[in-house]
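agent> fetching stored inputs for the guanosine-5'-diphosphate docking request
agent> found them:
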Amino acid sequence: MDYTIFAVAVFVVALLVFGGVVLIRPRRPGAGKEEAPPVEEGGTTTAAPEAAEDEGERSGAATAEPEALPEKAAEAPAAPSIETPPPSAGRLVRLRARLARSQSTLGKGLLNILSSDTLDDDAWEEIEDTLITADVGVTSASQIVEGLRTKVKVLGTRSPDEVRAMLREELLGHIGADMDRTVHTGPHQGRPGVVMVVGVNGTGKTTTTGKLARVLVGDGKKVVLGAADTFRAAAADQLETWGSRVGAPVVRKDEGADPASVAFDAVARGVEEGADSVIVDTAGRLHTKTGLMDELGKVKRVVEKKSQVDDVLLVLDATTGQNGLRQARVFAEVVDVSGIVLTKLDGTAKGGIIIQVQRELGVPVKLVGLGEGPDDLAPFDPEEFVDALLEE
Ligand code: GDP
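agent> prediction call returned; pasting tokens
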């Protein structure tokens, strides 16, 4: 009897010991981590409620409504969708209403005076003043007046259509309908086209770089962006946002890094990845002319170790008038500007600045900015511009 009790006791103890081992083992996942389980459990508890909540939401959703899947999809952030911007062709036509709205004062003013029965000296002076107010520039304004006077003499009586046609022809002659306004973004000899964007801060340089990337992507091009404005951390962030929206990689470095090295890396990446175009946004601090010259000159020289720079676009804010022109002149002296981007043309009636800036710098306006929207940048077309100006 005693023996049986002893045997049962041994069996029970053995069972307890064995059971204990089996039960304890799974709770010891890490060797030498006596404290680990509670920590791990704690760790899991931070994640667990979320998981539990998710589970709860999911199962709740599953019972409350059958739409459980969208909840699950929201768990993992969806890859940002890449936008497909509209192509460059027809952009100015699309933005024509905006152009007509902002420039109609100039067009209507000129048409009204020219349509009056008698054109005396006062009237011609008024025409000249209207042109100067629209930032056409004194020299061009007087030349346009001369041209119009000759045409009026030849015409004699003038119908409204004839007045319009004559003004159209005169303005087009001064804007330069035949200038080459191509932005050289295309690849050559197995290397991407390289565009440098320069200009004073605030003119819309970074925005233009981003918008230009969209124009190119819209035209089916592969683009790499270089954030060489390293003096403003926000500029690189801004550019990154533009790039990510259209799937264009942005090469950037820390704030204060050498702009030339960023530009070089961007072009190197463009070459490596077989990109069609590399667009480099530069810093626009007008500290000293020498400083600016050194900086932009270096960026260009360093980039040219990799690939030639095909276009240097100077961004000019159309609303800044003579002050903007003065700054533009400084830039044109330190780098070989090959094209002008006139921004904020939607916010001013002074579209005449196209004539003045081309005359002063001897380079064509290639692109115009007509708003803050991502696709409000268009290749400049003189005929579209003048037609919008003279729209009834
Ligand atoms: P940056 O300092 O030269 O790089 O200038 P940003 O690109 O940061 O632009 C300065 C401001 O100008 C921003 O608020 C832009 O949205 C605005 N901007 C740029 N281009 C245009 C344009 O064509 N029209 C209007 N209305 N605003 C513009």
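agent> quick read of the result: Residues 36-64 form the longest helix (29 residues).
agent> awaiting further instructions
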